[in-house]
Design goal:
The chain has a domain of 32 residues. The chain starts with a helix and ends in a 26-residue tail after the last helix. The protein is built from three helices and no strands. The protein is mostly helical and 85 residues long.
Length: 85
């Protein structure tokens, strides 16, 4: 870390030194001890499905607004369109 903190060194060299030292200065989470707790109990499948259905209903996207209007017919203008020869 002394090289990374040395302001007389080039910036790119300091960055490379910091990248190399980072795993040792800040250990990864996967190497940390993680405590887990296991629980057991009875699960009511019907209640679980009801809760899941309610949650999905709340997460569903609202229906988009309907655009109302009358159809407009466009007349083809055959005289102004010429076919290439």
């Amino acid at each position: 870390m002394q090289i990374a903190a040395d302001e007389t060194q080039e910036t790119s060299f300091r960055i490379q030194a910091a990248i190399g030292a980072a795993p040792y200065v800040y250990p990864k989470l996967s190497t940390q001890l993680v405590a887990t707790v296991q629980t057991s109990g009875q699960i009511d499948a019907g209640a679980l499905l009801d809760r899941l259905s309610d949650r999905l209903g709340r997460l569903a996207a609202p229906q988009p607004a309907l655009i109302e209007g009358a159809a407009v017919e466009i007349e083809a203008v055959a005289d102004s369109v010429s076919e290439p020869s």
